[in-house]
Design a protein that fits this description.
It is built from 5 helices and 6 strands, in the order ααββαβαβββα. Among the domains are: 68-119; 125-253, Glutaredoxin (3-Layer(aba) Sandwich). The protein is an alpha/beta fold. Strands 1-6-5-3-4-2 form a 6-stranded mixed sheet, sandwiched between helices.
């Protein structure tokens, strides 16, 4: 049996090209590569789609500052703290003022007590604060004579006119009401009985000469003690002329009347 020979396909002529592929026609290297590329992209998309997690639900936004109620509460707390601090400062100031006032009063009393002790040291004089009452400074000027219960007087209603300082006699002694007005101005009156012996009277005149702008020397027949000295609401009653005690009285209480007048 005769064998069949395979037919060899004709060779393409030199310079000729393979026929172009028609659109949609399968086959060819380019078509295969494109298919592979599309398959790879499709597979990647499938993988990405398969590996993607579902989106988490949105969480509410957290507040970063205090609420209005919190701000109001903080403001109220600050106001209360400030009010408490102010009350504490005021209370502390009042306590300090009271403490200072108390210390001042105590020191004043101690100082005055030391002065009183010095005035009474010799035993010849006795200090007191007896005085007639009045209607208060500015309302205690009265016309006419004034009768005083305290003898010698150291305060009370008095004449609108004040006596000047000086050494007086029985004949030219000013009225009591004018002398009391002088005490209100800060003068000191030294009273004596008219029959005081000459040497003792000279001692009083000499003392008055050293403080001529501040002292009145006045005879007083009704005086219960031989000598007395008065300032505004202060008295020193002496059984004899104690120059040291009288001079201490003058230096301590001159210019300390309630009505300030330059001497």
């Amino acid at each position: 049996m005769a064998s069949k020979k395979k037919r060899t396909p004709p060779r393409p002529k030199s310079g000729s090209r393979p026929p172009a592929k028609r659109p949609g026609q399968p086959g060819g290297a380019n078509s295969s590569a494109g298919a592979q590329k599309q398959g790879a992209q499709g597979g990647g998309a499938a993988k990405a789609s398969a590996g993607a997690k579902p989106a988490a639900p949105k969480q509410p936004r957290e507040r970063t500052g205090p609420t209005r109620a919190e701000r109001l509460a903080a403001a109220e707390a600050a106001r209360r703290r400030k009010a408490a601090r102010n009350r504490a400062l005021i209370a502390g100031g009042l306590v300090a003022v009271l403490a200072l006032l108390t210390i001042t009063i105590i020191n004043s009393r101690r100082s005055n007590q030391r002065v009183v002790s010095a005035l009474e040291a010799s035993g010849a004089c006795k200090y007191d604060t007896r005085s007639d009452t009045d209607r208060g400074q500015g309302n205690n000027h009265v016309n006419g004579d004034v009768a005083y219960e305290v003898n010698p007087p150291s305060g009370g209603d008095h004449s609108p006119s004040a006596s000047p300082p000086g050494i007086f006699t029985v004949q030219n002694t000013p009225p009591d009401s004018q002398i009391v007005h002088a005490l209100e101005h800060g003068y000191i009156a030294i009273w004596h009985k008219p029959d005081l012996d000459a040497a003792a009277l000279d001692d009083l005149k000499e003392l008055a000469g050293r403080y001529s702008r501040d002292v009145l020397v006045v005879p007083r027949p009704s005086l219960e003690h031989p000598v007395a000295a008065t300032a505004w609401h202060r008295r020193l009653l002496c059984q004899r002329v104690d120059v040291a005690a009288l001079e201490r009285f003058v230096t301590e209480y001159r210019n300390k009347g309630p009505e300030k007048v330059q001497h």
